[in-house]
Amino acid sequence: RGAHHEAALPDPPAVETTGAGDCLAGAMLARWLDLDADPDKLPEALRWGVAAATIAISDVGVRAIANACRSDVERLAARRP
Description:
The chain has about 80 residues and is an all-alpha fold. The protein has a domain at about 30-80. Helices cover about 55% and strands about 0% of the residues. The chain is built from four helices and no strands. α1 packs antiparallel against α2 (about 40-55) and α2 (about 40-55) crosses α4 (about 70-80).
């Protein structure tokens, strides 16, 4: 199956990294489970994780991710190539 890499989103710009890893892991796992844990869907799940982490780092502390909803993550994940 190999490795899959997902680049960071440049926008919104990073302010602080608190919670980025937790958001990436949590959103990735949640999306993968939504996709019936299909190993072939891991790249899509990773896109969701990166999108959630991008939201998390766009403000100080957990403010941005605390105010985010699923549609925010969907919108950013859809911007991925």
